[in-house]
Design brief:
heterodimer; A: 115 residues; mainly beta; six-stranded mixed beta sheet; five-stranded antiparallel beta sheet; 1 helix; 3% helix; B: 115 residues; seven-stranded mixed beta sheet; four-stranded antiparallel beta sheet; 56% strand; globular
Chain lengths: 115, 115
């Protein structure tokens, strides 16, 4: 069964304290892995898409990496405004996923950055 | 208006009511999605419309009825809901598979409470 597991469930950091969030996945054929940020009461906001093992993408203090089994979201010197829930989702390839762009989501990591 | 919009943002309804959720996308996409987000659970895909045809119905009860009159608008008609249907309902849009980058962009959601 296709599955996405995120860890930790919650993470509290001091401002400037770098850390990483993990997303482990088991899908038969990966088309893409997506990272989103979700603030309370809002919809998920797109951050990154990764397509193949070894790929990395950066945006401000965030860097996403991908291996064949997991992805990491590295947060360097976080600020309080980085506090949010970070969601990971995978998309299957055409053979298994069919004609849709179905995303399989994890439960997210709730990040709190204290000043 | 830009991006993906949803109305209403909040909805309280009784179990015997009939209501509709509306989603509109201004991104030129041709695929639209309904997701359900409950506390402590991953986002659950409900329906997918690609090129105005329903291509995925993820075992959703018949008390939820989607409608996609054109590629910019998506509705979710609700009737005789149960208290366990209380959740955040998210709409998303993307390009259909094979039409280019397939990243899904989300609206702000409708917070639904069923009494």
């Amino acid at each position: 069964e296709d599955q996405v597991t995120q860890s930790p469930e919650a993470l509290r950091l001091q401002e400037g304290e770098s850390s990483s969030l993990n997303c482990s996945y088991t899908v038969s054929g990966l088309r893409g892995l997506f990272w989103y940020r979700q603030d309370p009461g809002k919809g998920p906001e797109f951050l990154f898409t990764l397509y193949s093992a070894g790929e990395e993408k950066e945006k401000e203090r965030l860097k996403a990496t991908l291996t064949k089994k997991e992805s990491f979201l590295h947060i360097t010197a976080p600020k309080p405004e980085d506090s949010a829930t970070y969601l990971c989702a995978v998309q299957e390839d055409e053979i298994r996923g069919g004609a849709t762009n179905k995303l399989i989501f994890g439960t997210g990591t709730l990040l709190a950055v204290q000043p | 208006e830009t991006g993906v919009t949803q109305t209403p943002r909040h909805l309280v309804m009784g179990m015997t009511n009939k209501k509709s959720l509306k989603c509109e996308q201004h991104l030129g996409h041709n695929a639209m999605y309904w997701y359900k987000q409950s506390a402590k659970k991953p986002l659950e895909l409900m329906f997918v419309y690609s090129l105005e045809e329903r291509v995925e119905n993820n075992s959703v009860p018949s008390r939820f009825s989607p409608e996609c009159p054109n590629s910019s608008h998506l509705f979710l008609h609700l009737h005789t809901l149960q208290p366990e249907d209380s959740a955040l309902y998210l709409c998303a849009s993307s390009r259909a598979r094979g039409w280019g980058q397939e990243t899904q962009y989300f609206g702000p959601g409708t917070r639904l409470l069923v009494l």
